[in-house]
Amino acid sequence: MVNVAILGFGVVGSGVAEVLDFNGAHIERKAGEPVRVKYILDVRDFPDSPFGDRVVHDFSVIENDPEVSVVVETIGGVKAALDFTRRALRAGKSVVTSNKELVAGHGRELLELAGEKGVSYLFEASVGGGIPIIRPLEQCLAANEIQEICGILNGTTNYILTRMIRAGLSFDTALKEAQQNGYAEQDPTADIEGHDACRKICILASLAFGRHICPRQVPTQGITGVTLADVAYADACGKKIKLLGRAIRQSGGRVCAYVAPHLVDGEDPLAGVEDVFNAIAVKGNAVGEVMFYGRGAGKLPTASAVVADVIDAVRRRGARRMLWAEGGEDAAVSPEGLESAWYVRAEGTAETVEAAFPGRALLPRAGAPEGEFALVTGPMAQPELEARLAGLKALSVFRVLD
Amino acid sequence: MVNVAILGFGVVGSGVAEVLDFNGAHIERKAGEPVRVKYILDVRDFPDSPFGDRVVHDFSVIENDPEVSVVVETIGGVKAALDFTRRALRAGKSVVTSNKELVAGHGRELLELAGEKGVSYLFEASVGGGIPIIRPLEQCLAANEIQEICGILNGTTNYILTRMIRAGLSFDTALKEAQQNGYAEQDPTADIEGHDACRKICILASLAFGRHICPRQVPTQGITGVTLADVAYADACGKKIKLLGRAIRQSGGRVCAYVAPHLVDGEDPLAGVEDVFNAIAVKGNAVGEVMFYGRGAGKLPTASAVVADVIDAVRRRGARRMLWAEGGEDAAVSPEGLESAWYVRAEGTAETVEAAFPGRALLPRAGAPEGEFALVTGPMAQPELEARLAGLKALSVFRVLD
Question: I need a surface site. Which of A124, A273, A361, A373 has the fewest CB within 10 A?
Answer without folding.
Answer: A361
